[in-house]
């Protein structure tokens, strides 16, 4: 199953619009906001710095970076014109922020032109992520900062125990929305290999039980993927979605994903 984000510009307009809504829904969750604050806290923000939010989606992180750089400027880059249209709509009042269409493996900037580059749940969706990290190294100024935050998607769980059918939904969803579930494990090697020195590494995560907005989308998307591939019927997919909601009502829903962050410096 191919990751829908890996070739996002080729995906139907309606699918991109619905993913744009999921990105904003996910970002509104207090646990997601806390994780963002925690790892951005590992970065020193000179007020006039220039920052790139690579794989910006609808611009959640770009907006946060712009608020931290009142005399600097921020560019959000993404290959999806639909996400970028949403990002522009959501930031009309922010003067130090703009959005540009592009690919992280070939950034449209000169060498040593920026101070901060952030990849927020982007790299696990990108085939050949080492090229993106090398590009970040090229574009960053000496002493520039690279921040990578991503899911440890091997840990995504909806299971309450062994052989839980909702875990099959979680696994199917991950196969459809993440290119490399093991990226976070390889990240330190990739980052050091590009020439960066790692300043801070963190293990973070989310858990949803009684109001599982985002994790319910994982259950639903997994059930839809299984039905679309013909492995289960539409009726069984609906029954799996109903089971997730039954667990919410009875208080036994459990969904969680571990995340990780690395903040590194361009040492030379
Ligand atoms: C899960 S979304 C995260 C979006 C945003 N960073 C956020 O956290 O809301 C992954 C993003 O990576 C983008 N993406 C996928 N391939 C990319 C590439 N080659 N270069 C830059 N961005 C890419 C997708 O379009 C999508 O916006």
Describe the structure.
The protein is of the alpha/beta class. It has one domain: Vaccinia Virus protein VP39 (Rossmann fold, 3-Layer(aba) Sandwich), CATH 3.40.50. Helix content is 42%, strand content 25%. The chain contains nine helices and seven strands. The protein has helices spanning 13-28, 30-40, 60-68, 81-89, 129-139, 165-177, 183-193, 213-228, 234-250; strands at residues 50-54, 73-78, 97-101, 114-120, 140-157, 196-208, 255-266. A seven-stranded mixed beta sheet has the order 3-2-1-4-5-7-6, sandwiched between helices. α4 (81-89) links the parallel β2 and β3 (97-101). The longest helix has 17 residues, at 234-250. It is globular. The mean pLDDT is 96. The structure holds S-adenosylmethionine.
Compact description:
Helix content is 42%, strand content 25%. With 268 residues, it is an alpha/beta fold. It has one domain: 3-Layer(aba) Sandwich (Rossmann fold).
């Amino acid at each position: 199953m191919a990751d829908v984000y890996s070739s996002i510009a080729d995906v139907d307009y309606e699918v991109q619009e619905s993913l744009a809504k999921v990105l904003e829904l996910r970002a509104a969750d207090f646990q997601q906001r806390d994780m963002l604050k925690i790892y951005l806290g590992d970065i020193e923000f000179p007020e006039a710095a220039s920052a790139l939010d690579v794989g910006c989606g609808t611009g959640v992180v770009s907006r946060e970076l712009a608020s931290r750089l009142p005399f600097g400027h921020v560019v959000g880059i993404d290959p999806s014109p639909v996400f970028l249209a949403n990002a522009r709509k959501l930031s009309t009042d922010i003067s130090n922020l703009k959005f540009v269409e592009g690919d992280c493996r070939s950034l449209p900037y000169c060498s040593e032109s920026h101070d901060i580059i952030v990849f927020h749940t982007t790299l696990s969706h990108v085939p050949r992520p080492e090229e993106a990290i090398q590009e970040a190294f090229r574009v960053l100024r000496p002493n520039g900062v690279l921040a990578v935050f991503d899911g440890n998607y091997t840990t995504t769980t909806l299971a309450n125990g062994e052989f839980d059918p909702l875990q099959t939904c979680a696994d199917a969803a991950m196969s459809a929305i993440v290119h490399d579930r093991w990226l976070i494990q390889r990240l330190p090697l990739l980052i050091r290999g590009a020439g960066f020195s790692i300043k801070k590494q963190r293990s973070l995560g989310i858990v949803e039980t009684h109001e599982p907005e985002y994790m319910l989308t994982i259950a639903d998307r997994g059930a839809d993927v299984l039905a679309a591939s013909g492995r289960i019927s539409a009726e069984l997919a609906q029954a799996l979605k109903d089971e997730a909601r039954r667990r919410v009502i009875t208080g036994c829903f459990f969904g969680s994903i571990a995340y990780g962050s690395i903040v590194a410096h361009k040492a030379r």
